[in-house]
Specification:
By secondary structure, the chain is an alpha/beta fold. The protein folds into three domains: 7-74, DNA Methylphosphotriester Repair Domain (3-Layer(aba) Sandwich), CATH 3.40.10.10; 77-123; 179-349, Arc Repressor Mutant, subunit A (Orthogonal Bundle), CATH 1.10.10.10. It contains 14 helices and ten strands. It has helices spanning 7-16, 56-61, 81-92, 100-105, 110-121, 125-142, 147-153, 159-170, 215-225, 236-249, 266-275, 286-292, 299-307, 334-348, and strands at 26-29, 34-37, 50-53, 65-66, 183-188, 195-199, 204-209, 230-232, 284-285, 320-321. The strands form three sheets. A four-stranded mixed beta sheet has the order 3-1-2-4. Helix 8 packs across helix 9 (215-225). The longest helix has 18 residues, at 125-142. The chain is globular.
């Protein structure tokens, strides 16, 4: 872990409630005995009353108590009561069709819910619920159901609505993915949301969170690499990566041994291969990564390669942070980067 920035920098981030420091820095207030995230909405202390820590355990060891407003001892979203409540509802009934009226009937303000989910997950609650319904339709198609059955399982009133949502996610209409194929695509559930895995019988070609905006473009590029031969279904490689993801999130194994096929330029593949050498629980900066591949002046090119990685977690681009220790630039969402780094601290310990 990198050292904390100067107190002046941290105090400015505290005043601005800068989310770039989530999971990387915490402020303790000597006059109250409480420590917080830098994004905490509570009244700001004077700079001379602040102490700074890199981890909640350090603040607790120094005698400070966790704030009850920002919940600094857990991932950010876990401390938001609205988010926790609605995530439990989604888990209990993923096929439910939600509307803003449903939220209002629960005594929740739809605009407040929208802001909370976008702050934590980069998308609204209704978008998240819609993607879960689409997952049901994908599963039905994979199991060979008729298109109308898959449409109803996904909770869409019209075939065109289901096809359009499917096409936005995958870059293909549903019927295209039911034909003969060399690569197979399937859904994997994780504690951080659904992921799409694409593999053949030998290697993993893509692993992305379904809400990543660049997913359809990534699927189209992969389709171009393999001549459009991508269909729905499972392979032994997808079963293997699912098992390894479960072990990773359960705290049993930080390493991924599933074979991967990296589609990119020679430079991009060198960056991605170096990413796989960063142990869980450790991080590096883009400049360090450039130096590690022998091109210390290629920091920007390294950052671009990092952003175009299509095999999330297995190629751990989330372990690259800003030179000053802040969380930056994770296409899967900074909230996920925060949780992944927090998860991997246990492996380092």
């Amino acid at each position: 872990m990198l050292d904390l920035p100067e107190p002046e920098t941290l105090y400015a981030a505290l005043l601005a409630r800068n989310p770039a420091y989530e999971g990387r820095a915490y402020v303790a207030v000597t006059t109250t005995g409480i420590f917080c995230r830098l994004t905490c909405p509570a009244r700001k202390p004077r700079p001379e009353n602040c102490r700074w820590f890199t981890h909640p355990a350090e603040a607790e060891a120094a005698g400070f108590r966790p704030c009850r407003r920002c919940f600094p001892c857990g991932p950010t979203a876990d401390g938001d009561r609205i988010v926790s409540r609605l995530m439990a509802e989604l888990k209990a009934d993923p096929a439910r069709r939600w509307s803003e009226g449903d939220l209002a009937e629960m005594g929740l303000d739809p605009s407040t819910v929208r802001r909370a989910f976008r702050r934590h997950f980069g998308q609204s609650f209704l978008q998240m619920a819609r993607e879960l319904r689409l997952r049901g339709g994908m599963k039905a198609l994979t199991e060979g159901s008729a298109m109308i059955d898959a449409q109803l399982d996904a909770g869409f009133d019209s075939a065109s609505g289901f096809r359009n949502a499917f096409a936005r996610l995958f870059g293909h209409k549903p019927h295209v993915l039911r034909g003969p194929a060399d690569l197979r695509a399937d859904w994997i559930d994780t504690p951080l949301g659904g992921m799409i895995a694409i593999a053949d019988d030998e290697a993993l070609h893509l692993l992305e969170f379904i809400d990543r905006k660049a997913l359809p473009e990534g699927l189209r590029k992969l389709s171009g690499f393999v001549g459009g031969r991508i269909g729905l279904g499972r392979s032994a490689v997808i079963d293997r990566v699912e098992a390894e993801l479960n072990a990773y999130f359960e705290g049993n194994n930080p390493r991924f041994s599933v074979p991967v096929q990296l589609h990119g330029t020679d430079f991009q593949r060198r960056v991605w291969q170096q990413l796989r050498r960063i142990p869980a629980g450790e991080t590096c900066s883009y400049a360090q990564l450039a130096g590690d591949i022998g091109q210390p002046t290629a920091t920007r090119a390294v950052a671009r390669a990092n952003a175009t990685n299509r095999i999330a977690l297995v190629v751990p681009c989330h372990r690259v942070i800003g030179a000053d220790g802040t969380l930056t630039g994770y296409a899967g969402g900074l909230w996920r980067k925060e949780k992944l780094i927090e998860t991997e601290r246990a492996y380092a310990a």
